[in-house]
Amino acid sequence: MQGIGIIAEFNPLHKGHEYLISKAKQQGTVVCVMSGNFVQRGDTAIAEKRVRTQAALKAGADLILELPVLWSMSTAQNFALGGVSALKYAGCRKMIFGSEYGNTDELFKTSRILSSPDYISLVLQKSKHGVTFASARQSAAETLGVKKGILQGANNNLGIEYITAAKSLNYNVEFETVKRIGSDHDSMQESEFVSAALLREHLKKQDYDFCSEYMSKDILNLFSHENISDISNIETGILAVLRTKTIEELRQLPDLSEGVENKLFYSISIARSLEELYNTMKVKRYTLARIRRLVLSAFLGADNSFFMKPVPYLRVLGFSQAGEKYIKENFKNLSVPLINRVSDTEKLGGDVKKIFETESRATDLFLLSLNTPQKSGLEYKAKIIKTGC
């Protein structure tokens, strides 16, 4: 069967994700590219990636590939480029994703407009009048024919970036979108389908009765209180590491506009909490998520070496019997290395080794954010998760 790709965080995996996986399952082998232990909004994932891998396999996914932290905790553009490049290497012929709009034709049209010279010129022109980048972007896009409000949907924006990334990679993949229903992305309102953000808050409070309405029992059982992450558990550690950073080190961070490193350096020097750091760092053209990503990139020792580049390897986190068969049939002549064990990264060296070392460091620091902190070295000990094999 053909590979049907999904890019996700499963943070946590809820019934909306299960529905998306079931739609993909009807069409082929479900290949998921999943974020590691730090996620796109600039935060720790609610649970370690292997817990979320088990959840995805229980939900019907067949093969879980890792989206390394340098892509999983990044801009929508870089997140999409990393995920789409992984699906391309994995041989997926189709990708399915959720969106608020639910129409791929309109998303393709928007992608074309956002890639045009006229759009770029108009954004620069509008930005000169002191408006935020988001406002300038939306105004310019709608002036050039983008449907009103489409850029206000977080999943719409990711879908547009998936389409744009595929084009940049010359990846001839079919796209299908499923209309998102229920609460908006990051909404704290209750509805038929609530946001992952609301579920995270209830998991942190051990409110499993609430979560059981929106998460399947077998999956919810994986998210025990001991393995739940809360970034506040490592807040002092983050601030301590940041105070050791030089302006030159901050200047090398990914997605940093020239001069902002000075503001960041000053903010770090006076901040006594992450909230104070974020508030002090407020810059009109920077969203809160972008600021959080900068802060965590500095904490993890990430730089801009791999920003807006495809992932240079594939790493399997878990697979089902169907996933194992897919690997055997489709991974014989990969255009990038397949990492199955740590020794593979040592042999390959170069970029692969550097990225894996960053991944390992990120996991070691993440393990301190759990309600029951764990020893370091998990990336060197963890085994691939297999079900039904």
Helix tally equals 20
Basic shape: globular
The CATH superfamily of the largest domain is identified as HUPs
CATH architectural grouping of the largest domain? 3-Layer(aba) Sandwich
**Low-confidence segments, ≥5 residues, pLDDT <50?**
none
Describe the structure.
It is a single chain. Helix 12 packs across helix 16 (288-300). The chain has 3 domains: 3-100 and 155-181 and 219-229 and 309-386, Rossmann fold (3-Layer(aba) Sandwich), CATH 3.40.50; 110-152, no CATH class; 232-300. The radius of gyration is 20 Å and the shape is globular. The protein is an alpha/beta fold. Strand 3 (38-39) and strand 4 (43-44) form a beta hairpin. The strands form 2 sheets. Strands 1, 2, 5, 6, 7, 8, 9 and 10 form an 8-stranded mixed sheet that branches. 48% of the residues lie in helices and 11% in strands.
Sum this structure up briefly:
48% of the residues lie in helices and 11% in strands.
Task: Describe the secondary structure blueprint for this structure.
Blueprint: E1 3-8, H1 15-25, E2 29-35, E3 38-39, E4 43-44, H2 49-58, E5 63-67, H3 69-72, H4 76-89, E6 94-99, H5 104-114, H6 117-127, H7 133-143, H8 154-168, E7 174-179, H9 196-204, H10 208-211, H11 217-220, H12 235-242, H13 247-251, H14 260-270, H15 274-280, H16 288-300, E8 314-319, H17 321-330, E9 338-339, H18 342-348, H19 350-366, H20 378-381, E10 385-386
